[in-house]
Amino acid sequence: MSAAASEALSSQSNDATFPDLWSELEWRGLVHVSTNPDELKALLAGEPITYYCGFDPTAPSLHLGNLVQLLLMRRLQLAGHKPLGLVGGSTGLIGDPRPTAERTLNTRETVAEWVGYLEAQVSRFLSFEGDNAARLVNNLDWTAPMSAIDFLRDIGKYYRVGTMLKKDAVSARLNSDEGISYTEFSYQILQGLDFRQLYLDYGCVLQTGGSDQWGNLTSGVDLVKRAEGAAVHAIGTPLITNSDGRKFGKSEGNAIWLDSELTSPYAMYQFWLNTDDADVVDRLKVFTFLDRHEIERIEAAVAAEPFKREGQRILALTATSLVHGEDATLAAIAAADALFGQGDLRALDAATLESAIEALPTANASRDSGVSQLLVDTGLVSSLGEARRAIAQGGVYLNNAKVVDDGMLVGTNILHDRFAVLRRGKKTLAGIRLS
């Protein structure tokens, strides 16, 4: 772990103004559904317990929804409890059922590669030091040696098909044109097996996950109860949705990835900055370690002066720093300022500038491409005539320099020998990539 990551972890804490951890989790909106709340409240206030959350390698990176789980895991760890980060080397070969269609199965080699990526990401958000150091586990370690007969005799006998058919993900697929394969139907058994194995190996008594995984979470609770006669628990967190109610995630095609190669620090910063006023306080509660007093202060400021967007700016700075570090976040802020004429574009390094341009409408060009035509190509104007009028009115900028000649070529002002930024007015931007 880098020194910066270690320092970030050491600065995190739960809010001591709450009487217990459960009260803080509820205030932050992190409990959408759970097994017995009173028992969980007492359990989390008592001696350290071992808990886990699973992450399937069905993509090369975790995303925003997974971040909710990672931060919940960290809060539990800060309270003294012992985390197990499970990366599903076996469940990732299958994937949990989607509501509409079968998943495309990835190769064993691809899944193994993605296991490594996800383990590295999980490791950034938990501490692996001290009495309650985190541990990483891979469910392929206990499923690979198990024969089909062992699976059916030792695990399958505890499951009732009628109960399995009632799970939301399964019932949705049964009622669809696609139906559901036995492979995906069996996923809930594999996840239940994970909880039982972690209970036996580590005394694990709590699993967390998204509320859309509730059927899989309770599969493990039920299996441990039937097979071992023990009471264990589950917490389902709320889903993070956009303004039209769709959740953010890879299955929806709108994932905000934690890997900077897939979602740049600039793009993540802009994502948080564009949070609706109605959502910003809830996002601060979930995605930052700011205490109740500070969040309530921000809430009052947002209500009194929403146009200042203080909540969004704090959220964007804090949450992006949590994922990508402070240096990358400050570079993203500098890029945003420079793009809108409040900073020096030439001071930005090539990687930061490129990531910022990726978030804009773009066009490819050669050095002798005309700025007027590029205004049309990028959609900043609808015609060459409109482009010429915009330039004549003094409202067009190339790399923050005003364009005064409608015959200007883009090659006269470029950045890092391959980029340019067009701006119309104060806020309408486009990127140019030069070949």
Q: What are the salient characteristics of this protein?
A:
single chain; Tyrosyl-Transfer RNA Synthetase; alpha/beta; five-stranded mixed sheet; Structural Genomics Hypothetical 15.5 Kd Protein In mrcA-pckA Intergenic Region, Chain A; 435 residues; elongated; 3 domains; six-stranded mixed sheet; 20 helices; Rossmann fold
CATH topology term of the largest domain: Rossmann fold
Q: What is the CATH top level name of the largest domain?
A: Alpha Beta
Tell me the radius of gyration.
25 Å
Tally the beta strands: 11
Q: Can you tell me the CATH superfamily of the largest domain?
A: HUPs
Question: Assembly state here?
Answer: single chain
What is the count of DSSP helices, taking H or I runs of 4+ residues? 20
The fraction of residues assigned to DSSP E strands is: 5-15%
Strand order in the largest sheet: 1-6-5-2-3-4
What does this structure look like?
- The protein is of the alpha/beta class and 435 residues long.
- The chain has 3 domains: 3-242, 3-Layer(aba) Sandwich (Rossmann fold); 264-347, Tyrosyl-Transfer RNA Synthetase, CATH 1.10.240.10; 360-435, Structural Genomics Hypothetical 15.5 Kd Protein In mrcA-pckA Intergenic Region, Chain A.
- The chain is built from 20 helices and 11 strands.
- The strands form 2 sheets. A 6-stranded mixed β-sheet has the order 1-6-5-2-3-4, sandwiched between helices.
- Helix 14 (277-287) packs parallel to helix 16.
